[in-house]
Amino acid sequence: MSKIRITKQFSFETGHALYGYDGKCKNVHGHSYHLFVTVIGTPIADSKNVKFGMVIDFGDLKKIVKEEIVDVFDHATVFNKNTPHVELARELEARDHNVLLVDYQPTSEMMVIDFAEKIKQRLPETIKLHSLRLSETTSSFAEWYASDND
Cα 3 to chain center, whole Å? Predict the structure, then answer.
Protein backbone atom coordinates (compact mmCIF):
# COMPACT_ATOMS: atom_id res chain seq x y z
CA MET A 1 0.00 0.00 0.00
CA SER A 2 1.08 3.59 -0.57
CA LYS A 3 2.94 5.68 1.96
CA ILE A 4 0.94 8.75 2.94
CA ARG A 5 2.02 11.93 4.72
CA ILE A 6 -0.36 13.73 7.04
CA THR A 7 0.19 17.11 8.66
CA LYS A 8 -1.30 18.76 11.72
CA GLN A 9 -0.74 22.40 12.67
CA PHE A 10 -0.29 23.75 16.21
CA SER A 11 0.04 27.26 17.61
CA PHE A 12 1.56 28.54 20.84
CA GLU A 13 3.00 31.73 22.32
CA THR A 14 6.53 31.64 23.70
CA GLY A 15 9.04 34.20 24.89
CA HIS A 16 12.80 33.86 24.68
CA ALA A 17 16.08 35.75 24.59
CA LEU A 18 19.28 34.92 22.71
CA TYR A 19 22.24 35.47 24.96
CA GLY A 20 25.29 36.85 23.19
CA TYR A 21 23.34 37.75 20.05
CA ASP A 22 24.34 41.01 18.32
CA GLY A 23 20.83 42.23 17.52
CA LYS A 24 17.45 42.99 19.05
CA CYS A 25 16.78 39.33 19.87
CA LYS A 26 19.23 39.53 22.77
CA ASN A 27 16.29 41.17 24.57
CA VAL A 28 13.45 39.13 26.02
CA HIS A 29 10.67 39.03 23.42
CA GLY A 30 8.02 36.64 22.18
CA HIS A 31 6.58 34.99 19.12
CA SER A 32 3.31 33.46 18.02
CA TYR A 33 4.78 30.15 16.86
CA HIS A 34 3.11 27.87 14.32
CA LEU A 35 4.33 24.28 14.24
CA PHE A 36 3.48 22.00 11.32
CA VAL A 37 4.05 18.31 12.12
CA THR A 38 4.14 15.87 9.20
CA VAL A 39 4.29 12.13 9.72
CA ILE A 40 4.44 9.35 7.15
CA GLY A 41 3.08 5.84 7.17
CA THR A 42 0.80 3.33 5.52
CA PRO A 43 -2.93 3.63 6.16
CA ILE A 44 -4.29 0.86 8.39
CA ALA A 45 -5.61 -1.87 6.08
CA ASP A 46 -7.55 -3.92 8.66
CA SER A 47 -11.24 -3.12 8.08
CA LYS A 48 -12.04 -4.30 11.61
CA ASN A 49 -9.72 -1.69 13.15
CA VAL A 50 -11.60 1.43 14.30
CA LYS A 51 -8.82 3.48 12.70
CA PHE A 52 -9.17 1.69 9.35
CA GLY A 53 -7.81 3.85 6.51
CA MET A 54 -5.83 6.19 8.80
CA VAL A 55 -2.07 6.60 8.97
CA ILE A 56 -2.55 7.88 12.52
CA ASP A 57 -5.61 9.39 14.12
CA PHE A 58 -5.20 13.19 14.07
CA GLY A 59 -6.38 13.12 17.70
CA ASP A 60 -3.54 10.77 18.66
CA LEU A 61 -0.99 13.01 16.93
CA LYS A 62 -2.51 16.05 18.63
CA LYS A 63 -2.18 14.38 22.05
CA ILE A 64 1.52 13.67 21.52
CA VAL A 65 2.39 17.17 20.28
CA LYS A 66 0.26 18.92 22.90
CA GLU A 67 1.86 16.97 25.76
CA GLU A 68 5.45 17.21 24.50
CA ILE A 69 5.50 20.71 22.96
CA VAL A 70 2.43 22.94 23.18
CA ASP A 71 1.53 22.44 26.84
CA VAL A 72 5.21 22.85 27.81
CA PHE A 73 6.18 25.85 25.67
CA ASP A 74 2.92 27.80 25.49
CA HIS A 75 3.19 31.06 27.48
CA ALA A 76 6.62 30.10 28.79
CA THR A 77 9.86 32.05 28.52
CA VAL A 78 12.79 29.97 27.26
CA PHE A 79 16.41 30.60 28.16
CA ASN A 80 19.64 28.69 27.56
CA LYS A 81 20.49 27.34 31.01
CA ASN A 82 24.22 27.84 30.34
CA THR A 83 24.05 31.64 30.09
CA PRO A 84 23.74 34.51 32.57
CA HIS A 85 20.04 34.62 31.69
CA VAL A 86 19.72 32.04 34.47
CA GLU A 87 19.68 34.91 36.97
CA LEU A 88 16.76 36.52 35.12
CA ALA A 89 15.04 33.14 34.88
CA ARG A 90 15.26 32.63 38.66
CA GLU A 91 13.80 36.10 39.25
CA LEU A 92 10.90 35.38 36.89
CA GLU A 93 10.27 31.98 38.49
CA ALA A 94 10.20 33.65 41.93
CA ARG A 95 7.42 35.85 40.56
CA ASP A 96 5.47 32.77 39.44
CA HIS A 97 6.35 32.97 35.72
CA ASN A 98 6.61 29.85 33.57
CA VAL A 99 10.31 29.56 32.66
CA LEU A 100 12.02 26.81 30.68
CA LEU A 101 15.78 26.36 30.90
CA VAL A 102 17.08 24.37 27.93
CA ASP A 103 20.49 22.99 26.91
CA TYR A 104 20.60 25.05 23.72
CA GLN A 105 20.31 28.58 22.37
CA PRO A 106 16.50 28.91 21.94
CA THR A 107 16.50 29.78 18.24
CA SER A 108 13.85 28.35 15.93
CA GLU A 109 16.54 26.09 14.47
CA MET A 110 17.45 24.55 17.80
CA MET A 111 13.87 24.38 19.03
CA VAL A 112 12.78 22.41 15.96
CA ILE A 113 15.60 19.89 16.57
CA ASP A 114 14.44 19.52 20.18
CA PHE A 115 10.82 19.11 19.09
CA ALA A 116 11.73 16.45 16.52
CA GLU A 117 13.46 14.31 19.15
CA LYS A 118 10.55 14.59 21.56
CA ILE A 119 7.92 13.75 18.96
CA LYS A 120 9.87 10.82 17.44
CA GLN A 121 10.08 9.13 20.85
CA ARG A 122 6.29 9.11 21.21
CA LEU A 123 5.20 7.97 17.74
CA PRO A 124 4.08 4.36 17.18
CA GLU A 125 6.73 2.19 15.48
CA THR A 126 4.73 2.10 12.24
CA ILE A 127 4.71 5.91 11.95
CA LYS A 128 7.78 8.01 11.16
CA LEU A 129 8.26 11.72 11.64
CA HIS A 130 8.71 13.13 8.16
CA SER A 131 9.19 16.84 8.82
CA LEU A 132 8.58 19.81 11.07
CA ARG A 133 8.17 23.45 10.19
CA LEU A 134 8.36 25.99 12.99
CA SER A 135 7.32 29.52 12.01
CA GLU A 136 8.20 32.29 14.43
CA THR A 137 6.80 35.03 12.20
CA THR A 138 4.72 35.03 9.03
CA SER A 139 7.89 35.23 6.94
CA SER A 140 10.48 33.28 8.98
CA PHE A 141 10.62 29.58 9.75
CA ALA A 142 12.95 26.67 10.42
CA GLU A 143 12.41 23.22 8.95
CA TRP A 144 13.56 19.75 10.02
CA TYR A 145 13.37 16.79 7.60
CA ALA A 146 14.02 13.16 8.55
CA SER A 147 15.70 12.61 5.16
CA ASP A 148 18.29 15.27 6.06
CA ASN A 149 19.01 13.65 9.42
CA ASP A 150 19.40 9.93 8.69
Answer: 24
75 is catalytic: yes
Task: From the candidates 29, 67, 75, 109, give the one annotated as an active-site residue.
Answer: 75
Cα separation, 6 vs 131, in Å, equals 10
pLDDT digits 0-9 by tens, 36-77: 999 999 999 999 999 999 999 999 999 999 999 999 999 999
Residue 126 has what DSSP assignment? T
79, 101 Cβ separation under 8 angstroms: yes
- Give the chain's radius of gyration (CA, Å): 17
Task: Determine which helix (DSSP H) or strand (DSSP E) holds 91, and give its type and residue range.
Answer: helix 85-94
Any catalytic annotation for residue 136? yes
